[in-house]
Amino acid sequence: MPTRRGTVLFDIDGTLIDAGGAGQAAMEDVFREEFRTLKEVTGIPTAGRTDRAITRDLFAFHGGECDPLSLMKLRDRYLAHLPKYLETHAGGLLPGTVEILSQLSHAGEWRLSLLTGNFEEAAWIKLRHYGIDHHFSDGGFGDEHVDRDDVARSIWSRLTGDEPQLERLPVIVVGDTPADVKCGRAIGAQVVAVATGVYARHSLEAAKPDWLIDNLHDTRWLQELQA
């Protein structure tokens, strides 16, 4: 095993990729089909939240009960729909994604993992679609937890259980929402906020990340960590 410099946990949507709204459209359409309605969904925020939390709110919006069996059924239908929505929605990799992942993956010095609100299989579907899944082998996902902080605690506990030395090294969370900053703080991480999502730069600045960058081409944070 290579000598580790630390851990970098990446959010996906708005950070590494812009899926063109494919995930939200697929999920909302699945619920409209289930509840046989054309009603437009309003008032349910998605950025920085877990799919578990979003589906709970969609059940409530449509007057349904979010019991485990119903949740599993709707999740599976969403996962079946997602690939075709990715094909039909204009999306792509965000600036600097390929370069930073390649740089961090080189020689295996940094432990890369995911920290996302996506359902696990949805995360892998998106990463495979955009050709960057090979940079990751695991992560924290939004299947079990409503709160992103709990997702962060779960993956960090798992990673440090596998590699105890990681606790003594820097841990960095990279994301595009104030929720990414907050969940990073929940595990004592430093946070890189990247302004490629729906949040304006001033909103991210108010969350007090350690670094605030316009896109992933800006690698000052990594240079400082490796200095």
Keyword list:
227 residues, alpha/beta, Rossmann fold, six-stranded parallel β-sheet, two-stranded antiparallel ribbon, 8 strands, 45% helix, phosphoglycolate phosphatase, HAD-like_hydrolase_sf
Short summary:
This protein has 227 residues and is an alpha/beta fold. It has two domains: 6-19 and 91-226, 3-Layer(aba) Sandwich (Rossmann fold); 22-88.
Radius of gyration: 17 Å
Q: Could you estimate the helical fraction of the residues in percent?
A: 40-55%
- Major sheet attributes: 6 strands, parallel
- Number of H- or I-type helical stretches: 9
Query: In CATH terms, what is the fold-level topology of the largest domain?
Result: Rossmann fold
State the secondary-structure class.
alpha/beta
Tally of structural domains: 2
> How is the largest sheet built, in terms of strand order?
5-4-1-6-7-8
CATH-defined superfamily of the largest domain: HAD superfamily/HAD-like
From the spread of the alpha carbons, the general shape counts as globular
What is the N-to-C succession of helices and strands? EEHHHEHEHEHEHEHEH
- Please state roughly what percent of the residues sit in beta strands, choosing from under 5%, 5-15%, 15-25%, 25-35%, 35-45% or over 45%: 5-15%
CATH C-level name of the largest domain: Alpha Beta
| Number of beta-strand segments | 8
Spatial gap, N to C terminus: 22 Å
CATH architecture of the largest domain: 3-Layer(aba) Sandwich
Q: Mean of the pLDDT scores?
A: 95
The residue ranges in which pLDDT falls below 50 over 5 or more consecutive positions are none
